[in-house]
Amino acid sequence: MKRITSLAMSAVLLAGFATGAHAEDKKQLAFVVNIAADFWKAAEAGMKKAQGELPDYDLVFKYPDQSTVAIQNQIMDDLVTAGVSAIMVSAIDPNATDNLNKIAGQTALFTTDSDAPQSKRIAYIGSSNVSLGQQAGEIAKAAMPDGGKCMGFVGHLDAANYKERAQGFNEGVKGTKITLVDTRSDGGDQTVAKKNVEDVLVANPDITCMVGFYSYSTPAIYQALTNADKLGKITVIAFDDDPITLGGVKEGSVAGTVVQQPFQWAYQGFKLMAAYLKGDKSGIPADGVIIVPGQILHAADIDAYVANLKAMQGN
What is the CA 99 to chain-centroid distance, rounded? Predict the structure, then answer.
């Protein structure tokens, strides 16, 4: 009986070693984001769908503890040291090309959300942030036909996604009396994001419009305006689909929001990386840019959008 038990245990151990060896043989693909925000939950769902279609790969999703270039770079350095085969990153600082190029020299580097076009990344998949900004400008024009002074709020002023959205917003409101006076940054700290709004309410009483350029920016605006009893008195233009933002759009306290498709960025992005590693470069356009269009949501669009979002995330 003891011999049978020993043989059985040996078989289990051998099976375990074989499984472990098989897992180690899988190439790892990583998705590295710029901030720990609910915005990225849809991208995680996209990764899960891609994982089901890429059984020969191990897909991982990495959040930085803090939204800084140094921490994001450390995450990528650690992934390279661990032998990752490809990384897709939302670059916090697209101009930090030295480290991005170092990573690109060690593994296949792709970008999403915030591109780094001057780096040696292979391709970018995400929104046209200029187009998103133009769509936000359309919301502003419809909400403020007589014009207004807008203050923007964002995580990082140096990020390509912010610069391009601000450019697009200014293009979208060109020829009107709407102006983007300035933008306040919070460095990815959501407590600071709310305080920035509170400070503007005190220091800039002439501001009649607020633009939340990042997913968590509008919830911070919403909470600060609610506390100051100014919700509905200042026009709010949003980006992305935080639940607070969607609720504000539905109730009319947020004029509208421009949503992206991070689910598709991750789903298509992981499949693109896997194909590239197999030598298939047919999915990479000549300019290295793959655009997934955004969408404007008004109050009447929210219920259908939320239902579709839940279906994609398996809720």
Answer: 21
Q: Are residues 193 and 149 in the same domain?
A: yes
Helix (H, G, I), strand (E, B) or coil at 254: coil
The answer to whether residue 164 is domain-embedded is: yes
The length of the chain in residues reads: 315
Helix (H) / strand (E) element for 183: namely strand 178-185
Does residue 295 lie in a domain region?
A: no
pLDDT tens digits, one per residue of 126-141: 999 999 999 999 999 9
- Closest Cα partner for 148 from 197, 210, 199? 210
126 neighbors 88 (Cβ within 8 angstroms): no
For 27, phi and psi rounded to 5 degrees? -80, 140
Range of the domain at 97: 2-127+261-284
Mean pLDDT within 96-110: 96
Quote the CA–CA distance of 137 and 294 in Å, as a whole number: 13
Q: Are residues 91 and 180 in the same domain?
A: no
pLDDT at 62 over 50: yes
Q: What is the CATH number of the domain that holds 276?
A: 3.40.50.2300
Averaged pLDDT, 226-232: 97
